[in-house]
Fold these 2 entries.
Entry 1:
Amino acid sequence: MLYRPSGRDSARLGLAVAKKRLKRAVDRNRIKRLIRESFRQQRDSLKGLDIVVLVKPGIEKADNRTLLEALRNHWRHLSRDTRP
């Protein structure tokens, strides 16, 4: 994840899910859907940030539960690291 302060009241999300990493559209869409839903649930704790989620190789092998747990941990660390 990449992030920077935005000066806005709400958080914004960008996704970088490349066809090079996930060949099948169904896999790319599943990952994007999971990321968006996880972000929606954590949006209040991430106020004032612009966030870009980058996908690494091997993500297609992870199941939904594993991905959601990893995202939850990332959001938690991000919200803790960016608070004054």
Entry 2:
Amino acid sequence: MSLIAGYIMPHPPIIIDKIGKEDVLVVKKTKDAMEKIANEIKNMSPDTIIVITPHGTVFSDAFTINYKDLLYGNLSTFGYPEVELRKNNEISLVEEIVASSLIENIPIAKLDNDLVKRFNITDEIDHGIIVPLYYIEKEYSKYNLIHINYSGLSYNEHYKFGMAIRNACENIDKKIIIIASGDLSHKLSNKGPYTYSPSGVLFDQKIIDCLKEKDIRSIINMDADFVNEAGECGKRSIDTLIGTLDGYDYETEVLSYEGPFGVGYGVVSFKNFIKDDSKNIYDILLNDEIIKHKKIVENEDEYVKLARTTIEEYIKNGNKINVDKMNLPVEMLENRAGVFVSIKKHSLLRGCIGTTGMGMEKNIAKEIVRNAIEASTKDPRFNEVEEYELNELVISVDILEKSEKVNDLKELDVKKYGIIVESGYKRGLLLPNLEGVDTVEKQLEIVLRKAGIVENEDYTVEKFRVTRHK
């Protein structure tokens, strides 16, 4: 029977009566939409429900799928352990999804006892699963569950994973429903968990409009920095769900959208799937990605081009390039400065190494070469960059100005100044204008933690400006 329906559902615990209490009335549109879905699912009586959640263990380089026979979780994190869910796992379909993913070279990890012990993680289902299923359970409970955590991989890779899920479902003689669990922007207002950002409203509007119009390319091709600035958690769940629909036409309906607490809640249904080869767009998405990356590289200035050339030559051939033989701008060859080279992949940090003061080398160009190699191979937080990743990297180069002592924290500005803290031998640095660092307090908290300095310790603060090349 394969997939018979799909849904995008938010997961705010406040939508559960005993948790939200009077606040449930504020999200009535969302509650009504989720109750409607519960009745639809009751009428369809599926054998299995697959839920893609953002709030389990998320690996940067692989999806995870739960291998336990019995899936269990509760909302004790929110103070309500009595709100729980216990479901049988659909192991036969789990095995099909893993096999289908591996055939397509999609990295997927089995969330079993070995993985739990190895990484000291949990295999319990989280509120990203419990909340969307809460109203469904009231109406219909005769289904097995599959628990999947999305990954830090690209939007295209999530779409491709959705295709693999679809292929797996077609090998099973069961009625299956897939749910993309996720809230939209968390920055719709200062009432939310994050500081307000205009990108939040724009992101939610674009997602909802694109879903209405079935404009899948625009969803997958969203700029990653824009998505991050919106502070969402549901994008990759949605990418996976719409990937299951590649090669199909379908009916879609936005059942509700609201954001009363500064967080966007969208409820959307996908039904009546009809095979249509004209809807096969994965190859188009791959080509879009190639064109996008080509534009990024074409717009890089000499500083970033040097960093990229350095990384590519070192990763491919193990060679350190000689800047003395290159036609570089005079200021890169005659000036010295501290330099940070930052590498991102799919909007996530992939490596960052830098130097302060006058740097370690005799000029900025050599400093870039040194730190580009270090950032791609020696950042202790990450494995070395591999050759297959080179076309997915976004690189920036920060040239640091001389730092100056701060006597009053009012002198700081997270957008304009990076900061250095120091206490004895302990020292920490944080660059300015970083994603998610919106206040001086947050900036100081992070840099003190990096330095290993406790808040009541005596420490000095310095500020510095940077010229960012990206």
